[in-house]
Amino acid sequence: MIIFAILVGTLCAGIGSVWVAAALSFGMLARYTQHMLSMAAGALLATAFMHLLPEAFESQAGAHDLFMTLLVGLVFFFLLDKAELWHHGHEHGAHAHSHDHDHAPEHAAGHSHTGGSWAVLAGDSVHCFGDGVLIASAFMADIRLGMIASVAVLAHEVPHHMGDLVVLRAGATDRRAALIKVSMAGSVTALGGLLGYWLVEQLQAYLPFFLVIASSSFIYVALADLIPQLQKRLGGWQTAAQIAWLLAGIALVTAVSSMAHGN
Question: How high is the pLDDT of residue 119?
Fold first, then answer.
């Protein structure tokens, strides 16, 4: 039953996020991109600090070891981001200082090259595979945690996929083809979930550490990728809206948690 839940959760997060991204990129919701970033940041931080980390620290694992894992995870994701930026800078010299291709659409919009679409899809597939492993880890700990992690991954993948769609469209790909390609990359989340199910089952004693690594991923994406994009000088109403959407992301995760707990 757990494996079925993992499949549903990973497919909803992986492909569902692509369709939400398409609605935001191509549809009437395009004006709400910034609100989506705020909401995703809130959802990620709430998932990490209110659910994944408490679950890990309730285990028999030592607090020192778990904190060390969290620190190593944050440094690892920072170095991974650096490596992607460095590679991207060498590949596209003119864009050396722009951000990672699969992050926010406003960054991706600057990449008007035509040769990078498959590199974007390959990078996104690897990212989605990792998300699948993280979702599987959460489901193996607790069904409720798995549902929360799936919602959090869906929320944070939306701006990533919006960036992918912009890059593919800039490469002269029509909307439908771009959507199909990014959906295929998103479906790799399910493969990660299946491997994660097998891996976590084999390494059950290390589950708290998997949860902490998932937390470090969520915290890094929220603090290093999403929130900096929101750090702009805004008017009073815009700032209030930004904070409201951030709190909405936290509330969404809390609501999903309550619903799942009720079941």
Answer: 61
